[in-house]
Design goal:
There is one protein chain. The two termini are about 15 Å apart. The chain has a four-stranded antiparallel beta sheet with strand order 2-3-1-4. By secondary structure, it is α+β, with helices and mostly antiparallel strands. The protein contains seven helices and four strands; from the N terminus they run βααβααβααβα. The structure holds adenosine-5'-diphosphate (ADP) and magnesium ion. Adenosine-5'-diphosphate binds near residues 54, 63, 93, 111 and 117.
Length: about 140
């Protein structure tokens, strides 16, 4: 096992419903540390750039409109196997399939408004972290 970093976003539905504290608590309780963090209101273009990998998907327009509709909290999480651990804490993309005790099971509104984003692999984590943070904005958290 190795110390990794992953990009996490509390999506507009989570910020709007005052779930920032509850969601960060899940990460902290599971041993992940915050290595960088900010509250931002993404432009439509920024949301499209972030989700560029999904640009051919039928939900791309709706997803990027939703992600730029109101502020999000973006953080880098650091810890042992942080990428997979964060995905476990988040639960499945569709809350209907998410396991008990996961963020998406407990808080997601729908498959689209599913409260959190998390990187899915080391390459995407590095790319996504660099999309939001410069190296001087990251601390060694562990
Ligand atoms: P994940 O966020 O679990 O990595 P994906 O990368 O497949 O999931 O999709 C990115 C985001 O796009 C999802 O978190 C969700 O907000 C949205 N999304 C995915 N699939 C659908 C769908 N079938 N309908 C609407 N929105 C979707
Ligand atoms: Mg994904």
């Amino acid at each position: 096992m190795a110390i990794e970093r992953t990009l996490s976003i509390i999506k507009p539905d989570g910020v709007k419903r005052n779930l920032i504290g509850k969601i960060l608590q899940r990460f902290e309780e599971n041993g992940l540390k915050v290595a960088a963090m900010k509250l931002v209101h993404l432009s439509k273009k920024e949301a499209e750039g972030f989700y560029a990998v999904h640009r051919e998907r039928p939900f791309f327009e709706s997803l990027t409109t939703m992600m730029s509709s109101s502020p999000v909290v973006v953080q880098v999480l650091e810890g042992e196997s942080a990428i997979a651990k964060n995905r476990e804490i988040m639960g499945a993309t569709n809350p209907a399939n998410a396991s008990e005790g996961t963020i998406r099971k407990d808080f997601a509104v729908s498959i689209e408004e599913n409260t959190v984003h998390g990187s899915d692999a080391p390459e995407t984590a590095a790319q996504e972290i660099a999309y939001f943070f410069s190296s001087t904005e990251l601390v060694n958290a562990s």
